[in-house]
Amino acid sequence: MGLYGKCGYLDSVLQLFDEMPHRDIASWNTVISSVVKEMMYERAFELFRDMRRIDGFRIDHFTLSTILVAARGLASMVGREIHAHVIKIGFESNISVINALIRFYTKCGSIKHVVALFEKMRVRDVITWTEMITAYMEFGLTDLALEVFDKMPARNSISYNAILSGFCQNGEGSKALAFFCRMVEEGVELTDFTLTGVLNACGLLMEAKISKQIHGFILKFGFGSNACIEAALLDMCTRCGRMADAQKMFSQGSFSQSGSIIWTSMICGYARNAQPEEAISLFCQSQLEEQWLLTKLHQLLVGNSIITMYSKCSNMDDAIKGDEALSVWSKMEKAEHYTSLVGVLGYWGLLEEAEEMINKMPIEPEASVWRALLDACRIHSNTTIGKRAAKHLLAMKPLDPSTYILVSNLYSAYGRWHCSDMVREEMRVKGFRKHPGRSWIFMKQVEEHQKKDFLFYHSAKIAATYGLLMTRPGRPIRIVKNILLCGDCHTFLKYVSIVTGREIFLRDASGHHCFLNGQCSCKDYW
């Protein structure tokens, strides 16, 4: 039974279990764990109840730990009932059971119960400490997680990786990179999980120089032959704007049975770097590959990857190419899929069709869907549909200042300055403030006090000008902006690329822009 369970043959497990003339607690635990492994949580609880009612077995710590895994996939009330039963039968001091309870309450989002369980424990093992680190990271309390880590009497690679992945999970790439350096200094064993984590950290930072250093470190110590690490390396290169390196890696790939991950990473990389033609072309090319690859790509692309591709590939001039790939949308069910499709229709100027599609959605439209339509209305100066989109968006997000900014920009783009000023005044009366725009330029020997000089209105202009003054002629300029690039700065950077002959890379809230010879890779749609 155990062998069949590990191999995923649940029908064989259940058949053997039903044929057993006499069952013991080990057989019950095996069948329950096999069912939980296949995520059939309701069935697991049925077996759990039968175990106590039919055979009258006294459950042990393994039973409780396993059934708590099932409880994480069901309502929180079920897990609380199990917790009460744990106390009733005297397992509240069993380490493995308490560890499972900590995992359960972490999943339920109850930090109060997690902390209470941890503080009551007289004896803790390395798993307990690691579970606490994971819990704090899940709740975004990275400093507390690091504090728990520093208090650990003994650590292993799993606890180190929990900190590293937690920083990445919370978008703190700099802290993740610093912690990786600490791991190397302390001689911690670097696993595939560790290296994937540090590559994700580099992707968050989007700094080409740092990504090259980590890339070199991985290749130097011979870690680059693993398919997952190859995919993470490729993804990091695309996030850092190193498309030439990414293309070279992709063309040299061996494409084993894990090759579908690499194909997906490359497709999303093209999309992320405003190269929609290449993304769609590679997506169509992938469907000509072997059947196993097509199957795996379908599983991967009908999810977050296809969202990335279409949200970034909305600027396709040839609608026929879009129609060829849009057939996959028949399988889309999530709101974010519709958000991306609205972006595609918005670029083509099909605003009425986009609004009609939203009204016919089989699920309730989220704010992101209406925001995508409103942004498209701003670009195409359609105040009629824009007003309706804004009405829905304000009803759903009445306290979000960015909604008011979008409405104000819509009126400004159409030349209705009075209406734009009225929206800004409404923001002021309600106490809303627009986040100040900031831009950073990547250079050597820039002091912290100099960076503060960039925090001005139209900061992208200032950052670009500073880069032109402080770098050698012909060198590319890299800029990062914390909010959406305004139209004035966008036009300015196009002219700068003509006059200076420089290539300017800029990342803003919408994605990547590459200015060269007066053209931008986004084709003026962002």
From TrEMBL:
<feature type="domain" description="DYW">
    <location>
        <begin position="443"/>
        <end position="526"/>
    </location>
</feature>
<dbReference type="GO" id="GO:0009451">
    <property type="term" value="P:RNA modification"/>
</dbReference>
<dbReference type="InterPro" id="IPR011990">
    <property type="entry name" value="TPR-like_helical_dom_sf"/>
</dbReference>
<feature type="repeat" description="PPR">
    <location>
        <begin position="125"/>
        <end position="155"/>
    </location>
</feature>
<dbReference type="InterPro" id="IPR032867">
    <property type="entry name" value="DYW_dom"/>
</dbReference>
<keyword id="KW-0677">Repeat</keyword>
<dbReference type="Pfam" id="PF13041">
    <property type="entry name" value="PPR_2"/>
</dbReference>
<comment type="similarity">
    <text>Belongs to the PPR family. PCMP-H subfamily.</text>
</comment>
<feature type="repeat" description="PPR">
    <location>
        <begin position="24"/>
        <end position="54"/>
    </location>
</feature>
<dbReference type="GO" id="GO:0003723">
    <property type="term" value="F:RNA binding"/>
</dbReference>
<feature type="repeat" description="PPR">
    <location>
        <begin position="156"/>
        <end position="190"/>
    </location>
</feature>
<dbReference type="InterPro" id="IPR002885">
    <property type="entry name" value="PPR_rpt"/>
</dbReference>
<protein>
    <submittedName>
        <fullName>Pentatricopeptide repeat-containing protein</fullName>
    </submittedName>
</protein>
<dbReference type="InterPro" id="IPR046960">
    <property type="entry name" value="PPR_At4g14850-like_plant"/>
</dbReference>
<dbReference type="Pfam" id="PF20431">
    <property type="entry name" value="E_motif"/>
</dbReference>
<dbReference type="GO" id="GO:0099402">
    <property type="term" value="P:plant organ development"/>
</dbReference>
<dbReference type="GO" id="GO:0008270">
    <property type="term" value="F:zinc ion binding"/>
</dbReference>
<dbReference type="Pfam" id="PF14432">
    <property type="entry name" value="DYW_deaminase"/>
</dbReference>
<dbReference type="InterPro" id="IPR046848">
    <property type="entry name" value="E_motif"/>
</dbReference>
<dbReference type="Pfam" id="PF01535">
    <property type="entry name" value="PPR"/>
</dbReference>
